[in-house]
Amino acid sequence: MATARNASRRVEQQATVIQKLLKFRRDKGREQVEQALEQCDLHLTHDLLLEVLRRHRSDWRPAHLFFNWASKSPTYCPNSHVCNQILDILGKANRFQELHHLLDQMSNTPGLIDPPTFATLLRRLVAAHRLHEAIQLFHRFGSDPFHFQTLLMWLCRYKHVADAEALFHTHPALRHDIKTWNVILNGWCVLGNVHEAKRVWRDIVASPCNPDVFTFGTFVKALTKKGKLGTALRLFRGMRDKGGCKPDVVICNCVIDALCFKKRVPEALEIFREMKKGEWGCEPNVGTYNSLVKCMCRIRRMEVAYELVDEMERRKGSCLPNAVTYCYLLRSLKHPGEVPGVLERMERNGCHVNDDVYNLLLRLYVKWDDGDGVRKTWEDMERNGWGPDRRSYTIMVHGHFENGRVKDVVRYFEEMISKGLVPEPRTEMLVSSLNIKVKGRTENEGGIAIS
Questions:
Q1: Domains identified in the chain, total number
Q2: HSE on the CB side for 285, CA within 13 Å?
Q3: Most buried residue among 161, 262, 322, 422 by CB atoms closer than 10 A?
Q4: Measured over all CA atoms, what is the biggest interatomic distance in the chain, rounded to whole angstroms?
Q5: What are 285-294's pLDDT values in tens digits?
């Protein structure tokens, strides 16, 4: 145990050294950065590579440079997990030339390309709306059901549901597979198209397979999101009354959340109490409590919100508060002095700060115009490998604009562009409206420098 802790500590220390080296030599050429890395006397391992890549998940240039440098070492060869991480980083940054080059290199090593590689590539290609390349990749890897479901899932996740359904109907054998039907149904539901979701629901009922609990859950959630709570409640209560496919905790949570949103809090609390008594066949979990905590924070019943969190902490297990719980509490705060208490509570319950929490803290500190809070949060994000990402820079650009700090707006915008992060349209419009010429940036040949 002690040996494992020492090894983990060494990885953290070396990763911090590498992160600082890449950050402060950002304007240097590739050869100079590699020479500096050579002088660090690093012990390259998969864990070290993964930790460095994790810290640069939103900054592809230093991640790619370090990966390439490490791959040339005579004493180290990256495994599939490491390669998949850098593929994901490149795909997220839309660096598909580099991505395909690495994929070709991986093809020369048997066993290096695995199912997670396929899932990563499909996700990033579809996210960039490169559907033809994604379908070609599917055929390249072989058209087995697992790969096909993965392709359909990512097509639906990124709103190409019609394309996914058209592909689905080219495989008649899958009409007997409820899991594949569920992917299509969920796609239309996530897209918010209840009309098409109802059509697919009817197709499922008419198909050779029966709806399962995921099918019901998906449809109930779509109905509640579109405000059709009455229809959702009839379907929900019918599941229990008619037997057969009984609602699970996910479906119960969905209904509770919808009732809270419609301010039908007593009905939501009644289902919550029935769940605790075991009348629904499932007990509350963290999602159940989170819906109620969110509702209480929204209607400013903070004493009830904190009572619920106290109960979550006492019950522990699947009810233990998570980052979502504490984000609701953080959003309800009125001044910076209240933040440490919530963060200390998080730490006490073993809940670590993630990118969502960091970005929420940035948003709060910028709103409060608390420069020290912003600086500390930004430094913690970098040190712990949670960014800053595109959301972080968007918060800073718009926040500083609202606070009248034009120089800071331009500084963060330029830094965002230098990392290859694509600004949101509203951010580009804001900077353009300032009528300030943002310094042009181009990637130097063979390096990570930008000028």
A1: 2
A2: 13
A3: 161
A4: 71
A5: 999 999 999 9
